[in-house]
Design brief:
It is a single chain. With about 300 residues, the protein is of the alpha+beta class. The protein has a single domain, classed as Extracellular Endonuclease, Chain A (3-Layer(aba) Sandwich). It is about 25% helix and about 25% strand. The protein has eight helices and 17 strands. A nine-stranded mixed beta sheet has the order 3-4-5-6-9-14-15-16-17, with helices on both faces. Strands 1-2 form a two-stranded antiparallel sheet. Strand 16 and strand 17 form a beta hairpin.
Amino acid sequence: MSKRLLNLAQLSAVGLTGYLLGHNSNHHCKENDSISLATSSRILKCLPGLPVFGTVSAAVPYTEGGNSKDRISEIMKYGFPGLDNVRSYDDFVLSYDRRTRVPHWVFEHLTKDHIKKNDAVDRSKCDFKPDDSIHIFFRSQNSDYKGSGFDRGHMAAAGNHRLAQRHVEQTFYLTNMAPQVGQGFNRDAWNRLEKHVRKLTKVYENVFCCTGPLYLPRKESDGKSYVKYQVIGANTVAVPTHFFKVVVGESPDGTLHMESYVMPNQRIPDETPVSSFMVPPETVERAAGLLFFDKIHRSKLTTINGRKV
């Protein structure tokens, strides 16, 4: 009996300690404070001792029940690759890597209307700028890229967001950028891949695109493999060794078609076809540590990289 009482006392002490720690860690929360999840109609109340390991934040004002929520749900229709520091913008969603100062992944949903010419949208009026919703410790700055020899490479392409000026402007947040080799890659091979994805809207009613960086190992002269990448600027922004795109096209008849690409972050000859960078989606998932379109079982896909499943 005394042993049971002792165990009960120990459990009570642990519970009380957890409550007090949670209460102190959340002392800044008021009774009516809440966190809105853009992908759910639920509200998480500010409760003592509630651990939140991933964050979902709106980089722009988010209104419960408004169009923003509906748009984000549409973009992420087939699942989130991860929930680490997710930022929701008006027309795309990304997960930000605070350690590397570049995105983990960026998700877009494209239709013909999103990419067609719009005289009300002027890219030349857009400026690259830090995202103030990111803690200052973890932001990249324009000064990090200056003189580095790398372009500020869009993950969500500006040309994919022509419905409104505000949409294209948001693609210029540095949270949406990663250092890319300019001539021969960002301005050429990568640009051709972005154009290819836009052309898919002529074939499919809806195109869902996930883009991000990779840091792949390479065998050195000692015979061992290492993951090595350059960093630039005072904020040590990581330069990815490769980039990926995983795309799902949704036909009017409901059939689904997947394409996945990996490109090295280096000069690529102009004559190299985009199709030469196709890889099995499982290869990208293993390398990125992410699961893409996890709400779609692979057996439900009609084709992967142009081949019947």
